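[recover] target loaded
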């Protein structure tokens, strides 16, 4: 289809600009607005590859003449924002000059049989996004986020996820009791007990539990675990960053599966 004739925004008081500012700066604004902000051509292109349809394509005014045709034609509505205003909505040190506004996907129910990564109150948006990338890369299809985890569709998690959101079933706001309904084995990472990862017989499908950066996995989930798994650390560090631990564990599951 032909690119829609763009609307030009040159005022900080514009309603859409205010909404975009909230979406980029308030981690839970997407829940109130029912839509999410994807910043940058990489993230936007990843959404298009997965068949996502943006509501609005937004471009810095000076970038519009150089924007790729597939991005110009992606949405029914194109908006140009004066360059002087672009930093108001950018969360990047070097603004990406374009983005999509996309409807928030419908809430998913927990699939109790799916290969799953459980996020137990992970606080850091970068860690959460990184775990999503690893989950998608290694064959897991569902993220089950317990209440207290960083908002999955926030701008920072989206940037860190680098498009993994669009390949995963995302369920957030869950309780520990909800996790107990999973019908796949629950594997819990531990720094001091259980089988070493490189020696363990890993089931598939399964659900890996990744715990809070400081407190680790909650006692309730520890008790429900089918197995506790340790990562060998011959260098002697006390623990690993949760995103690094997730990448190691999920890769091991994916490799064992294949």
């Amino acid at each position: 289809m032909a690119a829609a004739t763009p609307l030009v925004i040159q005022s900080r008081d514009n309603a859409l600009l205010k909404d975009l500012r909230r979406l980029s700066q308030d981690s839970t604004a997407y829940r109130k607005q029912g839509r999410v902000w994807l910043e940058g051509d990489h993230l936007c292109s990843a959404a298009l590859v997965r068949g996502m349809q943006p509501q609005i394509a937004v471009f810095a005014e000076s970038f519009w003449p150089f924007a790729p045709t597939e991005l110009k034609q992606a949405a029914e509505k194109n908006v140009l924002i004066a360059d002087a205003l672009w930093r108001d909505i950018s969360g990047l040190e070097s603004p990406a000059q374009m983005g999509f506004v996309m409807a928030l996907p419908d809430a998913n129910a927990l699939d109790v049989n799916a290969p799953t990564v459980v996020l137990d109150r992970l606080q850091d948006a970068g860690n959460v996004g990184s775990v999503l990338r690893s989950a998608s890369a290694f064959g897991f299809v569902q993220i089950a986020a317990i209440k207290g985890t960083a908002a999955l569709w926030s701008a920072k998690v989206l940037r860190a996820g680098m498009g993994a959101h669009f390949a995963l079933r995302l369920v957030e706001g869950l309780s520990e009791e909800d996790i107990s309904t999973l019908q796949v084995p629950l594997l819990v990472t531990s720094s001091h007990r259980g089988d070493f990862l490189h020696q363990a017989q890993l089931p598939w499908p399964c659900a890996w539990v990744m715990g809070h950066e400081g407190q680790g996995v909650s006692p309730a989930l520890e008790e429900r675990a089918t197995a506790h798994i340790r990562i060998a650390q011959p260098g002697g560090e006390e623990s690993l960053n949760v995103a690094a631990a997730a990448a190691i564990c999920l890769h091991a599951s994916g490799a064992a599966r294949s």
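[recover] notes: The chain has a mean pLDDT of 93.
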